[in-house]
Amino acid sequence: MRPDLFNPLFSSAESLTGIGPRLIVLLRKALKLPPGITEPRIVDLLWHLPTGVIDRRAEPTVASAVAGTIGTLKIRVLKHRAPPRGNIKAPYKISAEDDTGRIDLIFFHTDRRFIERQLPEGEIRYVSGRFERYGETLQMAHPDYIVEPERRHELPMLEPVYPLTAGLSPKILGKAQRQTIERFPELPEWQDPSWLAARGWPSAAEAVRRLHKPSDAADVSPGSLPWQRLAYDELLAGQLALGLVRDSVKSRAGRSTTGDGRMRARIAGALSFSLTASQRSALTEIADDMAAPTRMLRLLQGDVGSGKTIVALMAMAIAVEAGAQATLMAPTEVLARQHVETIAPLAEKAGLRIGLLTGREKGKTRKDVLQRLAAGEIDILIGTHALFQADVEFRDLAFVVIDEQHRFGVHQRLALQAKGGEHGVNVLVMTATPIPRTLLMTHYGDLDVSRLTEKPAGRKPVTTTLAATDRIEDIIDGLKRALAQGAQIYWVCPLIESSDVSELAAAEERHAHLAQFFGDKVGLLHGGMTGPAKDRTMEAFTKAELSVLVATTVIEVGVNVPNASIMVIEHAERFGLAQLHQLRGRVGRGSRQSFCVLLYKAPLGETARARLEMMRETEDGFLIAEKDLELRGGGEVLGARQSGMPEFRVANVPNFTDMLAAAHDDATMVLSSDPKLTSPRGQALRQLLYLFECDEAVRLFRAA
Ligand code: ADP
Ligand code: MG
Predict the structure, then answer these.
(1) How much distance in Å is there from the Cα of 115 to the middle of ligand 2?
(2) Half-sphere exposure of 47 toward its Cβ, with a 13 Å CA cutoff?
């Protein structure tokens, strides 16, 4: 697939001198590898950009060297002075000189033979490191570099500093990086020359060199010209890829689905409320998409509780009215069951036949569902990932709704789409994550979007407070009072980066702690529990048999217990704002005044504080999301681990939003005049797609 000229870049990092199996393990930890990649490759090193530089360019004399500064010195080695026998604390000292004075080179706990080889008496050497003064004497302890005069060019006078991991030495990584840039292939220029000239941007190859082998310290920063150039490349590649995917989806014939409205009318008649204006306009947009002969790919965005489910049901009813089937896929079992509970009574009145398929439907139950599905006796199948399985066959699937899409990968979406057979199915993706416009563009391209902007009646504002974790006992006192008045409480435990096991341990610990105060009124809900156990706990909480529900983020999406009015979130600083917003949306659903307590671990950094303050100031999810984007930059807003969305490797730049908008316009323009990327610039842009591993997109125009 990928042209051979990229091979040097995409081969294993182990092919670099100095990188063996042990270092590969360390690199795996230190580098941000794209999803699905476990063996670090040279290209992964390439995008591992320095965070700063050590400037070794000062070349003072011994007499003019300033203590506390870093510099490079040409010296003559005079005499080795080993520490007295038996005194392991005393350093190994080497005295050296230049024409202006004396300096001591100091080594603690060192291998004597190594030093003798590096610094033979009487020889000239360049040493680079930090100058110190010890009494009257100038010293340098453990020089970073010691090189012979003939090899002086190997001394990195401006040494890039990379993010490391324990055990990975900066020297080894630096050496690997200097080889990495040699592997960068010769590629045609894909950017518009006048655009480059106007910005003063170098070629991609030069940009890579200037970042990894800087000759100007100012280049090593996300605002610098070479960095900006590569950030723009990455964004442009992403926008092109999305544009290509979208064009190919849209260009394939879809299926025009229209209904007579009879089931929708019955559903509407069964509702105890009338639809909001934005629900109605979303439905019109969806109905228009379904009726069009092209494939539908629409995102329905609406805050928690904005009433997406009913929109989904009405939309699915269109497919059924047209004589076909629809499916609704939820990210968790709990949610799938909740959807069934909401939908079943309405569906029954409308004459819609519902089925349920999750990992828990097994054996005869499962077989039965599959049979009825294939026979067309189920109109709407609700389920989880279990719907992807190959033996799940619809009689005639026309419409797919995916709830909380960001938890599913693109390939899963495609797998489900394939179940619609040659017609292709119309897809509606629903998310409660208030994704800012700019990010939608990055992750979905020009997806059609409907937004539910009003909250349904009856929702109350939530009072949000911030508190440091060391005030936890005060918080618990407050909870005691609230419980005495019949309140119910969610207590969400922190996310822990490293492993789910410790995440669970933290939740269990907090559960035990709270049980000391509230006894058996405290329940625990976590992702590792079996389906039935989760259901039992949720049910007990719904029935108010439990007053406090300690949970990991499994409750993040969709759970509805109106009497729960207090939400405590531990280590709130570790969550994305969008996530906090979703969690907070669990309360404020009943008649009680609701509270959200954001517990944080002090001290908070400036950005972290600003983010949490934002939560206190507003409940507008879109505003929160925009602000989060502004505070944290592009790649992190949704929390990569939760979202499964691609992270940027280079494009986490301060002016991300403007860059993205420009890349978006550029990509749109290119694809409108050169949809198959066949012009000279188009050919060059293909190389860009390979460089940033957008191979999927390339495959599309190959097939075309
Ligand atoms: P979400 O968008 O989070 O999935 P739901 O679809 O679960 O929201 O709706 C939340 C609640 O609001 C449900 O109880 C639903 O019946 C109710 N609801 C939906 N639409 C309206 C409306 N137009 N007026 C009043 N209540 C509504
Ligand atoms: Mg929902």
Answers:
(1) 67
(2) 23
